[in-house]
Amino acid sequence: MGTVPLELTPISPSELAERVKAGDIRAVSRLITLLENRDPAGSAALQRLEASTRRADVIGITGYPGAGKSTLIDQLATAYRRQGRKVGIVAVDATSPITGGAILGDRIRMQDHALDDGVFIRSMATRGRHGGLARATHEAVRVLEAAGYEVILVETVGVGQDEVDVTNVAQTVVAVVAPGLGDEVQAMKAGLLEVAHIVVVNKGDRESADSTVRDLSEWVAKVIRTVAIKGDGIPELIEAIAEHRRRNKDAGT
Ligand SMILES: Nc1nc2c(ncn2[C@@H]2O[C@H](COP(=O)(O)OP(=O)(O)O)[C@@H](O)[C@H]2O)c(=O)[nH]1
Ligand SMILES: [Mg+2]
Fold first, then answer.
1. Contact (Cβ atoms closer than 8 angstroms) between residue 58 and residue 142
2. CB within 8 Å of 211: residues ≥ 6 apart
3. Closest ligand to the CA of 66
4. What is the rounded average pLDDT of the residues 59-67?
5. For 209, what's the count of Cα atoms within 13 Å in the CB-facing half-sphere?
6. Tens digit of each residue's pLDDT (9 = 90 or more) over 171-226
7. Which atom of ligand 1 is nearest to the CA of 230?
């Protein structure tokens, strides 16, 4: 490497903003950290990005821990890269300190993308922060948009359990459920399914997947079965997301 880490170099908000707009990955990381820390230099740089903000497709991937969100995102990122689009991933870790191994797990799972500078992955931790996470997540998405990321995937735990309301940040919300969890599905119906545009029944390799798909199909228009670990159902999910975007664009949003 041999270069001075950007973290240690003094840099003005306007220069930081320029570097972000040029797509400089270290500048993107640096600015998101400043924003997470509520550093005034972060807000100053963010203001300078507004004029350049491009419109990315922002897709929320939400559901309970273990449903397979990160595995799906990994597959989606691969598929969008094949389309030649730059992909930003913001994983909001809302886990408690007790179960807090998720971030490392996500990093390892997404290592395939580590050498691809068309994929930017950022974890936002809840721990130790009170109330600021929703705002920081929003701001991170804006930074990634300004840096030219064309698809932004935001991973969150379900609505109501999470201080990030994914519906405010994403144009398309995908709820992920794993089959065989009766209580979970009931809870999803009450909350998440109301805001989801697309429901994914992941772990479609499990026997109980059929009945979960049948059950959910009575509640939501679009149910897609996937096996994220194998990539099954990913093209269908990509198409469903694209179709949702097209419909929204036609409707002028
Ligand atoms: N059998 C099976 N396991 C899966 C599938 N998708 C993910 N998993 C596994 O489920 C676990 C949780 O996945 P992860 O993506 O971390 O879930 P997240 O907590 O929702 O992000 C991991 O061990 C995955 O390998 C699938 O389609 N089938
Ligand atoms: Mg995850």
1. no
2. 179
3. 1
4. 88
5. 17
6. 999 999 888 766 666 666 666 777 889 999 999 999 989 988 988 888 788 999 99
7. 27
